[in-house]
């Protein structure tokens, strides 16, 4: 049976690829979440900027997910002006969710650097953290983050559903060593990244001439 949790998978999706999509599908299935949302970062403060504008990244995500109505796009950061902090985004998701669990899904590389996120400790007041395995990324936590995770770690999905926020669960997903950086590099050097991302997304990239200058990205 599905539960009433809301899952948020945030990212720059610059561009979205099958590593994101397969991980999203598997987490939604394993955690039995019917409300699963991929949420593109609007104006990410923790990176030096994105290559494609937010409206392009949103459009590519919508194309990728168009055949899969059980995986939704949440455009609240793209619609908001100013820097997007996950803590603010989660506060607004929490307002929608009421007392239902909110699950913030991040890959292992993102989890390793979570303590650099704005007001990161408050994330645990707002959501559970679901850490997805990712090729070439092992758990490597600074002490404060490692302690925070150790205190909150649970093994069963059930433990995420009995309380709205505050727990941490690791989820194994199929290891696809695909990254947006690699796709951008391929495009900038004239190679063809087909089969690493949906054909509809690649067609959009070509139509709009995206990532042609992304060498070294
Ligand atoms: P870039 O190469 O530009 O850093 P990326 O491929 O890491 O991009 P992001 O949009 O930054 O993609 O990632 C969004 C989220 O998806 C992050 O939490 C990241 O860890 C996770 N993620 C990205 N690619 C994969 C993958 N292949 N397997 C599992 N998780 C992934």
UniProtKB/TrEMBL annotation:
EC main group: transferase
InterPro entries according to UniProt: Cyt_trans-like, NadD/NMNAT, Rossmann-like_a/b/a_fold
UniProt GO BP: NAD+ biosynthetic process
Taxonomy, superkingdom: Bacteria
Keyword field: ATP-binding, NAD, Nucleotide-binding, Nucleotidyltransferase, Pyridine nucleotide biosynthesis, Transferase
Pathway membership: Cofactor biosynthesis; NAD(+) biosynthesis; deamido-NAD(+) from nicotinate D-ribonucleotide: step 1/1
Keyword Cytoplasm: no
A Gene Ontology molecular function term of the record: nicotinate-nucleotide adenylyltransferase activity
Pfam families with a match to the protein in the record: CTP_transf_like
Swiss-Prot/TrEMBL catalytic activity: nicotinate beta-D-ribonucleotide + ATP + H(+) = deamido-NAD(+) + diphosphate
Family: Belongs to the NadD family.
UniProt cross-references to PANTHER family, sorted A to Z: NICOTINATE-NUCLEOTIDE ADENYLYLTRANSFERASE-RELATED, PHOSPHOPANTETHEINE ADENYLYLTRANSFERASE
Protein name per the record: Probable nicotinate-nucleotide adenylyltransferase
Species of the source: Wenzhouxiangella marina
Gene that specifies this protein: nadD
């Amino acid at each position: 049976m599905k539960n009433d949790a809301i899952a948020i998978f945030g990212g720059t999706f610059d561009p979205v690829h099958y590593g994101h999509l397969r991980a999203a599908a598997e987490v939604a299935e394993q955690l039995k979440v019917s409300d699963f949302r991929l949420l593109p970062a609007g104006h990410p403060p923790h990176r030096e900027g994105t290559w494609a504008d937010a409206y392009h990244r949103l459009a590519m995500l919508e194309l990728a997910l168009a055949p899969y109505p059980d995986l939704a796009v949440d455009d609240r950061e793209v619609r908001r002006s100013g820097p997007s902090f996950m803590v603010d985004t989660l506060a607004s998701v929490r307002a929608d969710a009421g007392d239902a669990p909110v699950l913030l899904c991040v890959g292992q590389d993102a989890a390793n650097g979570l303590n650099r996120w704005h007001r990161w400790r408050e994330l645990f007041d707002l959501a559970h953290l679901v850490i997805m395995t990712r090729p070439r990324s092992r758990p490597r936590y600074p002490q404060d983050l490692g302690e925070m995770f150790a205190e909150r770690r649970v093994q069963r999905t059930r433990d995420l559903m009995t309380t709205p926020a505050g727990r941490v669960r690791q989820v194994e997903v199929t290891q696809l060593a695909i990254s947006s950086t690699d796709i951008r590099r391929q495009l900038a050097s004239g190679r063809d990244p087909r089969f690493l991302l949906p054909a509809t997304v690649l067609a959009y990239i070509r139509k709009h001439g995206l990532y042609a200058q992304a060498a070294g990205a």
